[in-house]
Amino acid sequence: MSTSTWGEVPRAPAASQDRWVAVGRSTAPGSKAAGREAARKAMLHPDAALLIVLCSPVHDLDDLLEGVRAVSGDALLVGSTTAGEIAPSGPSSGGVVVLALGGSGFSAATAAATGIGSRLRQAGAEAAACVRALGARPHRVLMLFTDGLACDQLEIIRGAYGVAGAAVAMVGGAAADDLRMTSTRQLRGGDVLADSVVAAALGSDAPFGIGVRHGWRPFGEPLLVTGTHANTLLTLDDEPAMDVYLGRLEAPAECYRDQAAFTRFAVTHPLGLSRRSGDRLRCVFRADFETRAISCNAVVPSGAMTSFMECTRASVLESAGHACADAVRALGGRPPIGLLAFDCVGRKVALGDEGTAVEVERMVQHSRGAPLAGLYGYGEIARVRGGSGFHNQTLVALAIS
Predict the structure, then answer these.
(1) What confidence tens digit (pLDDT) does each residue in 142-179 have?
(2) Which residues, in sequence order, are CB contacts of 118 under 8 Å at separation 6+?
(3) Of 340, 360, 347, whose CA–CA distance to 400 is shortest?
(4) Pairing relationship of beta strands 48-55 and 77-81 according to DSSP bridges
(5) Which of 7, 190, 197, 269 could form a disulfide with 127, with the two C-beta atoms 3.0–4.6 Å apart?
(6) Are 57 and 175 part of one and the same domain?
(7) What is the percentage of the chain residues whose pLDDT exceeds 70?
(8) Domain end point (choices 259, 288, 310)
(9) pTM score, two decimals?
């Protein structure tokens, strides 16, 4: 089943600001109260073009949206569940962060496609169709929130690219569920969706800037992908993929028999694919203990060479600063009025609590005082050139001017 509708937000009264961005956070235990508190902090002005809601899956999401919409009214809304939330005060888990933007210099439209499991490319195209409602804004970006457990995120992006075209940049994130790996949720308006793609097309009178960095490097001997099925790696170097993966990485014994232990280990041990634009990372999320296969959230093609990837805390933190600096630099000298971060749960696990706090501090430094919001998810979307654009273990920063 699919839904795909959109509607442009009317221009605000002339007395309103040209463009504004604000962020609210709440850690209140009650879902409705948390949604209301975060939205109230974010709704600095009544002419919001779009709200982005990033929330923990521990919340009752229907209640949370009811609380948000009690403040925001009928303003357009998109978002997803997370594996952690980002705000100027630092990273958190179990809360909700709301970013609101508006003013006469913005226009927005949203769409959703549901039941996407067997039709990922079509779903991406359906969701991306909202970009047609933006009108003649000089700067446009398409934001996607996808089911983080969908088998091939690249197919969603290809479908969206087929509609949005090369002139519209894409950013976004794959929704998460705190590493439970059971079910993620996407949000649109007052609806809580599953197995879906939610899109927000955003038009502005001023530029957007995008930065993409990861901080990982290959190590050891490369591996040949010798057998695949969809997003599942059956064999590496003609041996069962799980045995090669865990064996060469000297994984703990419990990873060979316990799915949760495997996921915790794999989320910080991605595979890399060499590309002209640099190494693309692919997270390994699941193992099949009977067939000895492993699964990623995007296809790794048969016949490709792949490598194990490693990082240091310093390299990951350095990449965070570079991604945000790149995004702000792309504004062409204009100061940012907001910064949105799509970060990876693998980076969060690799950095630990102290490291993620430092990472967010670096984001805040590069935001130059502008409001910051973000999420930790199961993959990141950033397409500036070409039809590709899915990333893992990467920070994607969107600067708004």
Answers:
(1) 999 999 999 899 999 999 999 999 999 999 999 999 99
(2) none
(3) 340
(4) parallel
(5) 197
(6) yes
(7) 95
(8) 310
(9) 0.92
